[in-house]
Every structure is written in structure tokens, then in C-alpha cells.
Amino acid sequence: AWRAARCAVDVMRSCATYDAGAGAHAVSLRLHCGLGVGKVHVYVVGACDRWELVVAGDPVRQLSETEGEAERGQVVLSKETVFRLRSALVAYPLPLSETSRGNYRLDWSHTSTKPSMATQDSDRMAFLSCEKRPNYTSIMNDRTAFGDQASDEARSFSHKHVREANWSNDPPQIGGPSPDDAEAVNEARAKRQAFGKTVRCVARPLRAFAPEASRADLDAGTPGLLGALRDVVTVFVDVNGLSDALEGGDVDRVQSAMEATVRAVRAWDGMLRQFAVDDKGVVFIACWGVPGHAHEDDEARAVSSAKEVLAALSLQGLEARAGVASGNAFCGLVGNAARAEYAVIGSSVNLAARLMCHAPPSSVLVSGTVRDRALSSFDFEGKGSVRAKGYEDPIPVYRPMRREVRTEVELVNETIGREDERRQVSEALENGVTFLIGPQGAGKSRLLRDALLASNKRVVWCSASGGAPVLAPCAWALCAGASDTCTFSGRAASSKALIEGGASDQDADALARLLNARRSSAGVISNGAASVARAVSGIVKKAGSPVLFIDDAQDLGAADWAVLSLLDAPCAILVGMRPIGRYARNATAARNALVKMLTKASVIALDPLSIAETASLFTACLGLYQGSGFDESG
Fold first, then answer.
1. Which of 443, 298, 320 has the alpha carbon at shortest distance from 372?
2. Which residues contact 103 (CB under 8 A, 6 or more apart)?
């Protein structure tokens, strides 16, 4: 307790008023500090190669009280901390004043001393009056006190240690050996090999504790290249009901919550940045847009994942709420060579936390930018506005609602061109699997919807955009037998209902688990793709050979690709997708499935429109030649 109080004083002396930047970019940080003491539980929880070290206990509760009472530049100690200091063999005389809530404010501007065990001599150890010992950080930053030369030497020394701690062949521009200097290159390689042999046994298990976005540069030994400004979507999830388990040592329940959250975030190819237990409660923080987790539909993915996390936690009896915001943020390491962490810092991150605090239980609130970029996947309901740091005006907020999949398709204009492709798609409605492949904007969705309107069979339309599950929801919609073929019927899927819909007794359980998990992940079905495929096939057969339309199939999850490759049912399946590159989401699963399917499936490749067709499409989109006074000659 004494060391913690002394540390708090040093922190306040160094950073109570911390000025950074210059000119228009100058900022002043004002700190306040709270102290708590007591027994804690330390958890190591996680799943899917993503683990966290979580500390929880009564001191966290004390922090929420003391930090809340501490104003800018103040240090507040909990009554438990003061009792521990006063109960020592030799009491610690501190300049304390009691607060209105029974805690104690430490006046660190006064002079006090730590007493000696033998002599009670107050001059043995100065507590508050001693000067803070200079370190490399203070020398680097305070040029006025230490001079330019000392600051530059400290910075050079620090960078040298950072490089030596990550031996690798860095480019010469950042201190690596010159490619022409064979001796220096060999020396760097030898150092790297020696370093690797020493720490590999430790580094491998610790790798799971590093956020995924940082691992590539950490593996390459170039952590200094991590920092960047990126467009990031941040999700904050506040979990209510897990505090008792954390404080009581119930590791099973903590692990279950962590595993459910990791799987839900991974299903939408996001990154779980942190599992935090602090004065604000139990919070999960996830990000999209960071290295390795950036997509064109990050907003839709984040909203889908947030809703999925809430659904997964509710199955465990936990009530949660979430906030989603997007914007430009710094992504990279903060700290120094001794202690650093991967952070995402920006006003949009603060906004996501604020939205989480304003969200009602079991609901998600999103910012206006998230709403605008996720309109293709969700409907939204306005929920007023909130104020947040970094924003001058109130921010409008919205609640996302899952858009039900409909068979009615509204087409404003007729399809232009594509006569041969339209004929081939119409012929594909009879039976078999047909892939409609083309780049973004080539007209795949339009051709599929034209075929949907022309079909006289029962149809089910689903979009895999953002990795949404497809085949299992299609089967569930067929079981429901309703006119609105929504992805989920609003009730949990039961094996009994699936059996009545056509699935066998042995396979219905696997399909029910996949449906209730509400994510398309190979880990959910636990190598049960064959059982799910047989269940879907049985339901499709009983439904009378319908037509399944799957749009944006390039985003299909591993489970859907596995089931699609094994599906054996008398129905037509039309799949619209973009070409899948080597680094696309679930590229390995897609390649393995396509290798099996293309031997019997048909492929329709969309070539670019002709000049005449492009001109017709352009004028139709602009609404020309329809009473505008223009004719086709211009």
C-alpha cells in the first residue's frame, strides 16, 4: 500500500498536468488517481488463439469509488487502504483528509516521511518531499530541464534497446544492416537466431495474449511499424451479471462469457482488443478496420457481431448492452520498450463507450456514420442524441433492427442488356448449382432478382454479406412455412421442429446447434458438416424442390462452404459471388468446396457491358430521355 501511494505521488508530480503537442494540436492532460487494496482473482481465459489475463476483486470496486471522488490532480485512497497503512507495525503518517464518502484524500503537496522501524526517525525515508528520480522518458521529453543533447542521447539509447530487443534485419533507414554489408547481415541473423532460441519457448504461448492486428509485425521484429491512422469501427459491450463470478472465483462462467464473445467477434472477422474489468464494470472491446481485419462492410459486420455477442451472452443468463461507432483512430503500440500495449485511440472510440453507457439493457446503439454505412444490412430507429468528448455538437444515435429477408423485390428500372446471361440464369432455375461470378457492380444481384421474379417455384433469398449464415437459416425458413421467409423465425430452433420439417432424428440436433449459435463458423458445428448437410437436404426435399438464391457468396463462412459442398437435394441453387482471391475471407474453405462442386456445377461469368449497354444503363440511372427534353442524340 505504501509503494502504491508513493507511486501515485510520482505519477502526479510527473503527469498531473501533462502538455503534449504544439500549436493547434496542443493538448493538456489532467490526471486523477484512486487507490484500492485487497484480495484479487487472476483469470487466464480465452478461445481461438485469443487469450486475456483478467484481474478482478474488491480493489476494483474500491477504485470505482475513489477515482470517482478524485478531482483533477488529486489522489484518493480507499478506507481499506488507509486501514492497511495505519495497521502496520509502524504506522505511516500521511497528510490525509476524509472525504464525504468515507475515503481519504492524499495531499501530495505536503512534506511527510516514512518512519524507521528501529528509530522512528522521520528523516530515514522521505515520502512526499523527495524529488522524482529522472528516467529516460522524462529526459527525452523535458528538453528545458535536461538540454537538447541529453534528450537526444536518451532517445538514441532507448531506440537502440528497442532494436536490440527485436533482433531482425530491419531496413537501413531504421537502423538495420546495409544489404551490401555481408558481415553485418550475418551478425544480425546470428543475433536473431540466438534470441529466438532463448525466448521461443516463452513467446509461443504468450503470442495468444497479443491482439491479432499486432502479431505480423511482432513476428517480423518490427513493432515500430505498427502505428497508423486508420478508419476503425469500435464496439463496446457492457456485461451485467458477471461481476459476482469474477469476484467469487467462478472461472467456468468467466471462461464461457469470454469464449462466446471471442467466437462471435471472430465469426465476423473482427478483433477482440480487450476484456476489461475496471471501475466502469465488465467490458469487452472489439474492433474492425485494424490490420488484418479490414473490409468494405466493417460497419455491418460490427453491428452484426454486437447483436450476436448480446444474444450469446443472454443464453448464459447475462444481460449486456453495446455501443458501436466508427471514425479515424490511431492504431498501434503505446508505451515503451519495458511496457507497451496495442491501443486504438480516437474520438470515435470514446463515442462508442458513451453509446454503450446510454444503451438500454439488451440493445445496441450506433452512431450516424455506422447507420449510413450499414443501411444495406439493417433498418434503424432513431434514439435521440448524446454528447461525447471530441464532438462539438450532439451525436444522433440509432438502434439497429435486423432486416427480414423478403421474396418481394422492388425494381425501379428494367435490367439493361445481359440477354445471354439472363437466359442462362432462367435455365438454371430447373435444377443443380449455378455460380454467377463477376466483379463488384457487374449486376449479379440484379440478375438473381430478375430470376427470382420469373420463378414459379417456392423461393428463398439470402445474402451472405458480412459473413451472415445462409444455408441453415434457409432450411429454418422452409420449416417455418410462412409467407415471409425471414432468416430467423423469432424463436429458437428446436430439433422437433426441424424433424417435422424433414430433417432426420440423427441430424436435426447438429442443425439446431448451428441455428441457435447464430453464426457461420466451422467451430460451431464441430466437424458436423455432413450431418447439417443431410438435415438441410431432407428439409429441402420435403419443401418440394424450391429455389435457393444466395447473394454475396464470397463472404460465406467456413461452415456454409462445407455444407454447400456436401448438399445433395433436388433443388436449384443460384449463387452470386465475386472472384475469391488468395487472401479473401475463408479462402481455404471456399477453395476446398469449389474443387468438389465445379465438377458438376455450372458457371456463368459476367463480362463487362458493351458500350451501347453501358450508355443505356447510364442514361436510365440518370433518368434521361423520360420527358426531360433530350433524345438519344443528346
1. 298
2. 65, 66, 69, 76, 77, 78, 79, 82
Helical H segments across 481-582, by residue range: 495-501, 505-517, 522-525, 529-542, 558-566
Cite the DSSP H helix spans in 166-250. Answer: 182-207, 212-220, 243-248
Residue type, 86: R
Q: Are 95 and 72 in contact (CB under 8 A)?
A: no
CA separation for the pair 417, 127 (Å, rounded): 83
Q: What is the CA radius of gyration of the chain?
A: 30
* 28 three-class SS: strand
User: What distance in Å separates the CA atoms of residue 556 and residue 465, rounded to the nearest whole number?
Assistant: 8
Distances (CA, A) of 526 to 486, 514, 531, 589: 26, 10, 11, 15
DSSP H or E run through 159:
helix 148-165
The secondary element (H helix, E strand) that includes residue 45 is strand 40-47
* Alpha carbon distance 102, 75 (integer Å): 14
E strand segments, 257-318: 271-278, 281-288
Q: How far apart are CA 322 and CA 69, in angstroms?
A: 27
The answer to whether 425 and 436 have CB atoms below 8 angstroms apart is yes
* Inter-CA distances, 601 with 60, 550, 552, Å: 59, 15, 18
Quick one: residue 210, left, alpha or beta (phi over 0 = left, psi -120 to 50 = alpha)?
Answer: beta
Contact yes or no for 605/438 (Cβ under 8 A): yes
Yes or no: say if 341 and 293 are a contact pair by the CB < 8 Å rule. no
10-residue stretch averages of pLDDT, the chain, 634 residues long:
81 72 70 87 84 86 84 86 77 77 78 41 42 50 64 62 48 63 79 67 74 76 75 93 85 89 86 83 90 85 90 88 93 80 89 90 91 86 80 85 51 65 81 83 77 77 69 78 40 69 80 61 54 84 82 79 82 84 69 84 82 73 48 42
Q: What is the 3-state secondary structure (H, E, C) of 374-436?
A: CCCCEEEEEEEEECCCCCCCCEEEEEEEECCCCCCCCCCCCCCCCHHHHHHHHHCCCCEEEEE
Give whole-number Cα distances, 153 to 137, 145, 150, 368, in Å: 12, 14, 5, 47
Torsion region of 625: left, alpha or beta (phi above 0 gives left; psi -120 to 50 gives alpha): left
Look up residue 423 and give its three cell numbers.
437466359
Beta-bridged to residue 513, according to DSSP, are none
Cα-Cα-Cα-Cα dihedral sign, residues 147, 148, 153, 154: positive
Q: Quick one: which H or E segment has residue 321?
A: strand 319-335
Q: How many C-beta neighbours within 10 Å does residue 586 have?
A: 24
How does 557-585 read in b/e, with b if 16+ C-beta sit within 10 Å? bbbbbbbbbbbebebbbbbbbbebeeeeb
Residues 6+ apart with CB under 8 A from 526: none
Is 225 strand, coil or helix? Answer: helix
Q: Find out whether 418 and 381 touch, Cβ atoms under 8 Å.
A: no
Quote the cell numbers at residue 407. Answer: 421474396
Cell of 57: 476483486
Within a 10 A sphere around the Cβ of 432, how many other Cβ atoms? 15
Give the Cα separation of 545 and 537 in Å (integer). 10
The answer for residues whose C-beta is within 8 angstroms of residue 508's C-beta and 6 or more apart is: 495, 496, 498, 499, 535
